[in-house]
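2 proteins. here.
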Amino acid sequence: MEGAIEKIDKSSVLDAIQEFVERFGYAPTVRELAGGLGCGHSTVQKALFDLVDEGKIKRVPGVARGIVVAGGVR
């Protein structure tokens, strides 16, 4: 298959963020999300941009663990 595009469900990314925060008390990095979900960094980045656009998360620029779930704690 030439040029296969990796996709992941945005709700899976959101669930992974929430589970990580519940377990560790702080937000995951993009690299941690990608590793945990078994996908690439750019795939997670795309999902995060979509989640920001939908108002489900916020991102703090320049902060490695700067993902904040809407209505939640970073």
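next one coming up
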Amino acid sequence: MPNEETMTIHETAPDGTETTIEITSTKTDDAVDGDDKALVEEAYEAIFDDNIDDDDGTDDDVNDDGPPATNADDGGDDGLQASDGTDVNDEEDDIDDDDPASQLTPTDEEIGTDSAQFTIGEDMFPDANAPSAVDTSGDDAEGTGSAVATDDDTASAVGTTDSGDAEAADQQAHADAAKDAQDAADEFVAQGDYAAAAEARETAENESYAAGDDSMLGASDSGDLENAAYQQQNADYYRDQQAQDIAAGDYEAAKEDAQNVGAATGDADYLAGGADHTGQADKDVANLDWAVWDEKNADSAAQNADYYAAQGDFDHAETAAQQADDYQSTADGYADHADPTSAGYDYDASSAVDSGGSYDAGYDATAVDSGFDAGADASAAVSYDPGTDDV
């Protein structure tokens, strides 16, 4: 609870008119306790000047044992009175230089009202013991220790503002760089160059982290794109193996290779969030499926030819042998359409991807190399329908 003290001052004018002034001082709970001056003393110092002279040039007196008293014009029976009504003798030893309460009372000009109330630690009269909000360590020329902001304070404030502006500009620069890198990653993904997209996306992630903003980043992160690029490498491996198995005449193995190409390519597209590039693998699987079918028919026809020949039925044996050749030729034709190294490759343009790109600041997303391009259109498919097995 606040502590409250009241000080009453009586003043008698030369014409006998008496004036009573009551000052109530309240000290808040957060004001410093202990050895602080009395509330009335702090109040008195806060409002009134010290050592005020009367009209006759003499110093006023107060009673050491009570609140400040007023003085009469001539220091006689119209003289100083304390709050209890007793006269205060004009004796020099009644004045205590170390006691603000024994100092002189205010003049009429200093007192504008008959009473005043204030709170120490709040409003107009802050607690002298409370920490100051400004630097008062440097005294002025008269040693009064005036509390004013220095040039260093101003410079510090300006420096803080400049530093904040520089930091904001730096963050914006990182955000812009992150957006540029993400845009590059998106374009690389659209081209199917997932390795380059991973490189650009990693740059975007680093820049966005520095900017403290990841709102510009896409769904697939650099890890996803790196895995997508790895799956593209797997697809390339199986496609090379597919060509080797076709060259060896193992169309069944080549068909499995094409299926693996499609699976790896699909995984890559999914991880990167790219377009579907599995169309080529699907065509290869279809062509090789026909190749396997016709090759089986060729094997069956060859077996029939051997049987007829063993029976001495050379006419049927010759017919069966011719059928076997026809089936094998058709199978080879389908396999040729599925051979990435062949001029007759049944090329699917929607599955073409770029590779070999890279990203750095000021990037230009330009196609570098195509993953595969037969460069020639496939010839018309063999019209023979392997659905009929002539034996």
